[in-house]
Amino acid sequence: MAAKIIHALLALSSLAVLSVNAQAPGVPVVIAKPYEPLSNTLTTVHRLQGASIDQAGNVYAVDWGTAATGYTIGQIYPKQKLVYSNPNKIALYKGIRWLKTPSRPSNVERQALLVDTQLGISRLTIFKNGVQKLETVCTHPNLTLANDCAISDTGDIFISQQIWNDQTVIGDGGVWHCHQNDVNATAVPLFIGGRTNGIEVSPDDKTLYVSEAFNVAGLGPVSNILWHFTITKTKTGPKLTNKRVFVDFAKLDNTASVDIDGSRTDIDGNLYVTRNGGGGVYKFAPNGKPLLFIKTNFPTPANLELAGKDGKTMYIIGPCDGSNGVDKGCANQYRARLPGKAWSKLRAY
């Protein structure tokens, strides 16, 4: 099992080697600016993962450092620094989402959800008071390589999974659910499919966006679709209904081979999606219309977050060039028109 997981993780790292023109005709293009503090200091074999914002507007990422330090959390803005390193050194953090506290946050009150993979099983844990707590929020026997998570105002957590196989099969990905107040709970599968990655909840908590990709042996990725689900509340928890295509990149710009990665919404529900290997970020209206392509100065943007004092500065992160063995991490900035959803909701006391 451990060998299979290592193979899958290495495959995900090599995924970013591909770089193509990922811009749909007629969509306006803007250029993101390099974020200088990270330009020459950060190295990573794995992609920088899980950009996330806390209530103070600070930006963080996991898998911070070298190939041997996937058990770390680092701060990107306003200062670049290591925040936490798991002393057991067996964790592999794939995502992080900061949680809202009842009052203005202090260092003691700040806590976040961590997507953590250890020895063939993934779980959500709580990062609080500057350390990873031992208690598990939730896990599931089939949730072996959780990749990212999204959270609603009501504390519902939606988890994506991405198992990289040369030939993708149903079950390599999906969406699982649990609640931020759960303790040692069994996550509930809501959707089982190909390998899933970027995941986000709309500002009104009514829609879940999740990416799904399929590989074909010898060809690599041949399909990258962003799905739109209605989040339907029931007595036993949320269900995902009314599945429909939000964006099919084969039809949009002929880039089915370029993976969808991290995604975030602004306060109006516009969805930003990174194209890992496509050298940029798409902005989509809530109806799926492409509004903008934000071109990065590196080909492999993996995750993004809207942050800063007004929530309008986008930080786009990822490896500078996935074709190298040991690679520097890169970060770009872009000034958006509207604040991010997470920035707005975390600061609403």
Concise structural overview:
A hairpin with a 2-residue loop joins strand 10 and strand 11.
Please tell me about this protein's structure.
The protein has a single domain (29-346), classed as Neuraminidase, CATH 2.120.10. The chain is globular and about 50 Å long. The strands form six sheets. Strands 1-24-23-22-21 form a five-stranded mixed β-sheet, with no helix packed on it. β25 and β26 form a beta hairpin. With 349 residues, the protein is mainly beta. It contains three helices and 27 strands. Keywords: Hydrolase, Signal. Residues 1-22 form the signal peptide. This is SMP-30/Gluconolactonase/LRE-like region domain-containing protein.
Calculate the terminal CA-CA distance, rounded to whole Å.
45 Å
Average pLDDT number: 85
Q: State the secondary-structure class.
A: mainly beta
Number of DSSP E strands: 27
Q: Determine the strand fraction and express it as a percent band.
A: over 45%
Q: Categorize the overall geometry.
A: globular
Q: So what's the CATH class?
A: Mainly Beta
Strand adjacency order, main sheet: 1-24-23-22-21
Largest sheet: 5 strands, mixed
Share in helix = under 10%
Q: What is the domain tally?
A: 1
Assign the CATH architecture.
6 Propeller
CATH topology: Neuraminidase
Order of helices and strands: HEEEEEEEEEEEEEEEEEEEEHEEEEEEEH
Write the layout of secondary structure elements.
Elements (H helix, E strand, L loop, with lengths): L1 H14 L13 E3 L1 E2 L8 E2 L4 E5 L5 E4 L9 E6 L3 E5 L6 E7 L12 E8 L2 E8 L2 E9 L6 E6 L4 E7 L10 E7 L5 E2 L1 E6 L1 E7 L5 E10 L3 E13 L6 E10 H4 L6 E7 L5 E6 L3 E5 L5 E6 L7 E5 L5 E7 L7 E9 L5 H6 L3
Parallel strand pairs: 1-24, 11-15
Antiparallel strand pairs: 2-27, 3-27, 4-5, 5-6, 6-7, 8-9, 9-10, 10-11, 12-13, 13-14, 14-16, 17-18, 18-19, 19-20, 21-22, 22-23, 23-24, 25-26, 26-27
